[in-house]
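Hi all, a correction to my earlier message: I attached the wrong file for TetR family transcriptional regulator. Here's the right sequence:
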Amino acid sequence: MTPAEFRGKRARTRDRLVGHALDLFEQQGFEGTTVGQIAARAQVSEMTFFRYFASKEMVVLDDPYDPVIAEAVAGQPAALPPLVRVARGLRAALAQLDDPEDQVTRRRVRIVAGSPALRAAMIRTNAATESTIADRLIADGVPALPARVAAAVAIAALTCALLEWATATDGTSLTGAVTTALDTIEAVRHD
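and the right structure:
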C-alpha cells in the first residue's frame, strides 16, 4: 500500500466513523450511544475508533481551525483595537474554510446544541481557541487583560452564532450567522 493509499484509507475510515456516530447520536442521543455501537456500525474495533478519536465527544468537538484562526488574527493590523482585530481575523478565517456550511458540520453542532454534556465540553474546547487567540494578541504587544477579554467575547459570539445556525429552521446560513455576530461585537465600540 502506498502512502497516498494509506492516507486515503485513513480518511475513509474516519469519515465512516463520523457518519455512523452522527447517525447514532441523532437516533439514540449522544448520551445513549456507546463507542462500541459506533465501532460496530462502522465495522471496526473499539481500538480503531480510539486511533481516530480520543473520546466519543471528539467526534463532534474536533476543531482543526485554531491555527487558521490564530494566523488570521495575526494578519490583522496591530493598530486595530483588540476586539476589532479578533473579529476581522475570524472573518478572514471563515473565508478560508473550504465549505463552512456543510451538512456534517451542521449535524455536529446540532448534536452539541441538544446535549448539556456536549455544550459543557464545547466550552472547554473553546477555551483552547480562546487561549490561542489571546496568546497571539499578547505576543503582538496587546496587554494580557484586553487580549483575553477580546478573545473571550469573540469566542462567545462565535459559539452563539454556531448554535443559532445549527438549530435554525429559517434557512440561516453559517456565514450569515457568524457575520451578524461579528458585526454585533464590532458595533459595540461605536455605541
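Sorry for the mix-up. The chain has two domains: 3-55, 63-190.
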